[in-house]
TrEMBL record:
Coiled coil: none annotated. This is Thioredoxin. The keyword Amino-acid biosynthesis does not apply. Belongs to the thioredoxin family. PANTHER family: GEO12009P1, THIOREDOXIN 2. Pfam families: Thioredoxin (PF00085), Zn_ribbon_Thio2 (PF21352). It comes from Shewanella jiangmenensis.
Length: 140
């Protein structure tokens, strides 16, 4: 499986059976799974959404959004629980307007699962922890 490093965004080849063995990046030597969402920007988005083979769960959010703020701990907990099945990333729609427009984000929070550059699932609105975990398990 090809994985983008959450630190340097370099691409790494890791056998599927070794994903749970705490693999490290061949370039920067950092762990490939931090158990926390990474910040997605124009600079690193394509490495994780297009080039990496691991499904990317994206939380489209904004700092002024109350439901986004209440969903943030749920999303962070899911990252700790579901990595390495998924990569988790947060995209600030105010700071990354072009990316938000690229995915036609109309309401926030919106969560998408992207694999191979294609959206395979989308959920608008904040979910409680159990409901979010159940939604993710459909695509694991």
């Amino acid at each position: 499986m090809i994985l983008a490093c959450p630190h340097c965004h370099g691409l790494n080849r890791v056998p599927n059976e070794r994903l749970a063995d705490k693999p490290v990046c061949g370039r920067c030597k950092s762990t490939l799974f931090a158990g926390a969402p990474l910040e997605l920007t124009e600079a690193n988005f394509d490495a994780h959404a297009l080039k990496s083979e691991l499904p990317l769960v994206v939380d489209f959010w904004a700092s002024w959004c109350g439901p986004c703020q209440s969903f943030a701990p749920v999303f962070a907990a899911a990252a700790a629980e579901f990595e390495p099945q998924f990569r988790f990333g947060k995209l600030d729609t105010e700071a990354q307007r072009a990316l938000a427009a690229r995915f036609a984000i109309r309401s926030i929070p919106t969560v998408m699962i992207i694999q191979g550059g294609k959206v395979i699932a989308q959920q608008a609105g904040a979910l409680p922890k159990q409901a979010f975990a159940q939604w993710l398990k459909q695509f694991a």
